[in-house]
Amino acid sequence: MHKKSIQEGEGYQELKDKTTLQEILNTASQFELTAFTFYDALKDKVGKNLRPLVEELVQEEQRHFTLFQELAKQPDVQALIANKILIPPNDHRFSDYIQLPRLEDFADDQAILQYALGREQAAMEQYSALAGETPPGAIRDLFAYLAQEELEHKKELEKRYYELVHSGGV
Q1: pTM, two decimal places
Q2: Beta strands, E only, the chain
Q3: CB atoms within 10 A of CB 136
Q4: Domains and CATH numbers, the chain
């Protein structure tokens, strides 16, 4: 069996590129809480055609946050949360969305949809990457499920964006 030689400094880089599942779960929980807060604050500020979608996103993001909270309490997950996994390459984009934007920065429904699309894309990519890096089990299943959920959100937002832009709403 041929073993790859490790150059000086590679071990540090390998460790630097990893994080614990606990840190990932904490970051993902914050992401979902920020999404809930953002959409909840928007629901009375968007146009009436967009309001039902925003209200649905409020409920979805609350549900995602609750899933993370409940998952973290499971004994089998407690045994794994100290495990290290590779940090996804798009982690910085995902983390950027943990900061709540100022609502006054959104001039209209188009600007809101553009921001929401970026947020859902970052979440989908992050959860997909995490599902690929996480060992089989409840955490991997949750990340795969959330990746699919975020993809569905993105598709619905894209549909609404297309309708808004092509109806002359901008």
Answers
A1: 0.78
A2: 18-20, 84-86
A3: 7
A4: 19-166 (1.20.1260.10)
